[in-house]
Every structure is written in C-alpha cells, then in structure tokens.
Design brief:
Keywords: Membrane, Transmembrane, Transmembrane helix. The protein is mostly helical. The protein has one domain. Helix content is 86%, strand content 0%. Helix 1 packs antiparallel against helix 2. The chain is elongated, with a radius of gyration of 21 Å.
C-alpha cells in the first residue's frame, strides 16, 4: 500500500476527500445516536411516570412516538446509503 505522500496527485485528492467523508459520516451518526438515546431516556421516563399514575394512554404514546422516530431515522439513513 502506498503512503499518502507517495500517491499521485489525483489519488491524493480522493484519499483526502474519502477521509473527510468518513469523518463527516461518523459525526452525523454520532449526533443521531445521541439524539435517539436522549429520546429513549425521555420515553422511559414518560412510561414510568404513566405507569405510576396508572394511566395506560400516558404509558403507551411515548413508545409509539419513539418507534415512529426510529422508523423515520431508518428510512432516512437507508435512503442516504442507497444514493
């Protein structure tokens, strides 16, 4: 394998762009993961508080919203990967 400094100029450009795209992708995946973890924590809190109040509707709707958000994220990421 060539070192980056020994690659021809046109290959160096693609090498640099490839590295920045990987960093960009991981950056966005990290933001999505942190957002989903925060949403999951909120769902757990709302479900527990709904169960404590013995109100089934208050315990169910956060789970539905969380699953909807997961579906939207999965759809968006699968569309982004397929393009």
């Amino acid at each position: 394998m060539y070192q980056a400094s020994r690659l021809p100029l046109w290959e160096r450009v693609f090498h640099i762009v490839g590295d920045s795209m990987i960093i960009w992708l991981w950056h966005h995946l990290l933001i999505v993961a942190l957002g989903l973890l925060t949403l999951l924590g909120l769902v757990i809190y709302l479900v527990v508080s709904g169960i404590r109040q013995k109100n089934v509707a208050k315990a169910v709707w956060p789970v539905v919203i969380f699953c909807s958000c997961l579906g939207l994220v999965y759809f968006a990421m699968s569309c982004a990967i397929m393009d």
